[in-house]
Backbone:
């Protein structure tokens, strides 16, 4: 196992992606207790919420866990302060450069792992003094860049001298083994954990993930400037139609369509609202077809990856 994960003391180099509204204490504690690394999704939540979640995880497990910080959140300063005070083992970051927080987080004992969609951003993060890079491909659920995991991971591995964690499109041991072959030191999975028993999302959301096929996601926000992969539903179709119409009209006034998207993930998670909610999920939703405890997911994918990497039928076939 990579020294990064050894330092953390986890059993498997498997990170459960910090998902806003979705990744709260029940799921995070279950993943960490099972030997992975659970990560609380703090999204745009206020600091009090984040502290409550951190303490709820600590009450359930003494294993390491993380917090995902959205650097564009209006509460980012207070959230960072809570993380410092609570000495959280890992901080993953999205939507920006965590450079200004690195010294404080480091002093509080946190490892910092930014999520990046490109080689240029990965290099910039290295200069910011982070501990590893999560390279996330556009197969993934939630906000995305434009490169696939297959193309992005080896290029980031070649470009930086830090451990790289592959994210996007990984839902089982085959994906983990493939990511390790690309040079990753570990993986981050989000969509697979949407189906975990402990995941507190509305049944409409969970069922939509379980029913989804390979082609059932689409990307909204490409024109608006923050692309996100979500399940096809009335909301995502309406959003896409509206932003395309604006793009074609040439007015470039996206205020109305942005308004449509505000709070849409919360409406999906809490209300299961198919008309107005964004059911964020990745392309691997088509591989997720039953509910299991998070521990069973972690064990299953880790054992499958172990078998493939230790005794690979692919390697034997290649060598023949
Ligand atoms: C519902 C949902 C919400 C997400 N929210 C966040 C977030 O708040 N911050 C973040 O850095 N990544 C977020 N992600 C991305 C995940 O952390 C993870 O990197 C991604 O899901 C991995 O790809 P996969 O979905 O193919 O497994 C989200 C993903 C999903 C599915």
Residues:
């Amino acid at each position: 196992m990579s020294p990064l994960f050894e330092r953390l003391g986890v059993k498997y180099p498997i990170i459960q992606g910090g998902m806003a509204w979705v990744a709260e204490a029940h799921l995070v504690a279950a993943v960490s207790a099972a030997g992975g690394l659970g990560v609380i999704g703090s999204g745009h939540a206020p600091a009090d919420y984040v502290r409550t979640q951190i303490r709820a995880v600590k009450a359930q497990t003494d294993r390491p866990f993380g917090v995902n910080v959205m650097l564009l959140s209006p509460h980012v300063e207070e959230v960072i302060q809570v993380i410092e005070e609570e000495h959280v083992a890992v901080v993953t970051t999205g939507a920006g450069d965590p450079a200004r927080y690195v010294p404080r987080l480091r002093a509080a004992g946190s490892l910092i792992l930014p999520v990046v969609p490109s080689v240029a951003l990965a290099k910039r993060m290295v200069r910011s003094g982070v501990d590893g890079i999560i390279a996330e491909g556009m197969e993934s659920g939630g906000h995305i860049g434009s490169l696939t995991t297959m193309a992005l991971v080896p290029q980031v591995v070649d470009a930086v001298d830090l451990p790289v964690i592959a994210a996007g499109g990984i839902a089982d041991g085959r994906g983990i083994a493939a990511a390790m072959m690309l040079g990753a030191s570990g993986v981050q999975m989000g969509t697979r954990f949407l189906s975990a028993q402990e995941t507190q999302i509305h049944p409409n959301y969970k069922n939509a993930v379980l029913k989804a096929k390979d082609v059932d996601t689409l990307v909204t926000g490409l024109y608006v400037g923050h692309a996100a992969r979500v399940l096809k539903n009335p909301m995502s179709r309406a959003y896409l139609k509206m932003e395309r119409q604006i793009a074609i009209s040439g007015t470039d006034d996206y205020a109305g369509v942005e308004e449509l998207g505000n709070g849409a993930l919360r409406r999906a998670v809490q209300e299961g609202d198919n008309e107005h909610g964004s059911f964020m999920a990745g392309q691997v939703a088509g591989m997720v077809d039953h509910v299991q405890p998070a521990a069973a997911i972690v064990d299953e994918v880790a054992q499958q990856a172990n078998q493939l990497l230790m005794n690979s039928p692919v390697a034997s076939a290649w060598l023949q």
Remarks:
- The longest strand covers residues 65-70.
